[in-house]
Design goal:
With 194 residues, this protein is α+β, with helices and mostly antiparallel strands. It folds into two domains: 1-31; 34-189, no CATH class. The protein contains four helices and nine strands. The longest helix has 26 residues, at 6-31. The termini are far apart.
């Protein structure tokens, strides 16, 4: 077989470039779906270290269709306050977690959001998601428990759609479906100085 001319390798590179560009364009359609963290703040408040967050949720079509059919979905926010250590794994100082249940009520054509013992009803899905995607004043730790002079504290935060709380038959069918992988993870350095 004769060697390939130089123009053939250029053609292959051009084809690879076009394939990469097409893949990037196709994947940007999914960027509009999911969770964007609009705000995350750790602050000192009345002798406590507290957490505030605000996320923007844009549900994929498959999740919205399941909601319209009466399947409740759950969102979970988790935060861990950690301190760096050079001699061992980082020390976990505090961990907080909250969950929200979002469900459609077909009889009243309204959306219900539940967290803990509190349930609220909203006329639109966007209003319900706005409530289920924010938290304010979560107590992480007492400032007296922390070494204020130590700069080695950081926060690991995640907010996601919890597919483990979906009905069993739905969980089985979700493996490998990226539509249901809705969430965000981030790490934030915590400054304890005055």
């Amino acid at each position: 077989m004769p060697p390939l001319p130089a123009s053939r390798s250029n053609l292959q590179r051009l084809l690879q470039g076009w394939l990469l560009a097409c893949w990037l364009l196709c994947s940007t359609a999914a960027w509009g779906q999911g969770v964007e963290l609009a705000g995350l703040q750790v602050q000192r408040q009345e002798g406590e270290l507290t957490l505030d967050f605000n996320a923007r949720v844009n549900l994929p079509r498959a999740v919205e269709e399941a909601l319209q059919r009466g399947v409740p979905i759950y969102f979970v926010a988790q935060a861990q306050l950690l301190r760096k250590r050079w001699y061992w794994r980082d020390e976990r100082i505090a961990r907080v977690s909250r969950s929200w249940r979002v469900a459609y009520q077909p009889l009243t054509s309204s959306w219900r959001v539940g967290t803990g013992g509190l349930n609220q009803t909203f006329p639109t899905l966007s209003e319900a998601l706005a409530i289920a995607s924010r938290g304010a004043g979560w107590k992480l730790a007492e400032l007296s428990q922390l070494d204020v002079g130590d700069g080695g504290y950081y926060l690991q935060f995640s907010y996601k759609l919890d597919t483990a709380q979906l009905p069993g038959p739905m969980q089985f069918g979700l493996t490998g479906q990226g539509d249901w992988a809705v969430g965000v993870n981030t790490t934030l350095k915590v400054e304890l100085g005055p």
